[in-house]
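Supplementary notes for students who missed Thursday's class. We covered one full example, reproduced here. Read the sequence, then the structure, then the short commentary at the end.
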Amino acid sequence: MAVNANDLRKGTAITYNNDVCVVLEVTHRTPGNLRAFVQAILRSIRTGKSMDVRFSSTEKVETVPLMTYKMEFSYKSGEDYVFVNPESFEEVTVTPELVGDAKNYLVENATVTMTFVEEKAVQVEIPPSVILTITDAPEGIRGDSANNVQKTATLETGVPVLVPLFIKTGEKIKVDTRTGKYMERA
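Structure (token representation):
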């Protein structure tokens, strides 16, 4: 479906240079002695790179329908990750590149939001925080608590995280998936 560049909105998917891109930001500009134009920041779904693009305000842009579903991580098959739609029980296999850093926080039955374009998975989003179990946490040294001292512990996904000295092996903690930092006990 073609729309005017004036009608572009944040979050819309469009076709640009034979690639599907998501609109991250849109600004309408009308300089004093020039024609109006639309300045947009687009992110390529294929490469993940962002670009700054200028459209004439009357230019036609081809939109692409986006579909988002809540999916659950099921298992890892070789290098690929398999997710299941909990409503239709349909399996979707995605590459490690598409999963990206989310792999550090994926445990069985973890819920993610998956975006599809033309029935092809293009993005995997994990929640801003997850609850994971500590599998290895060395003992804190007594008398080492003068300042906010932390130790390195290992999560059930194998990722190291800095935690306070009082956290022990087997405890569940909340981790910020954007920064990879300890938030609180769960």
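Commentary. The chain is about 0% helix and 55% strand. The radius of gyration is 22 Å. If anything here is unclear, bring it to office hours.
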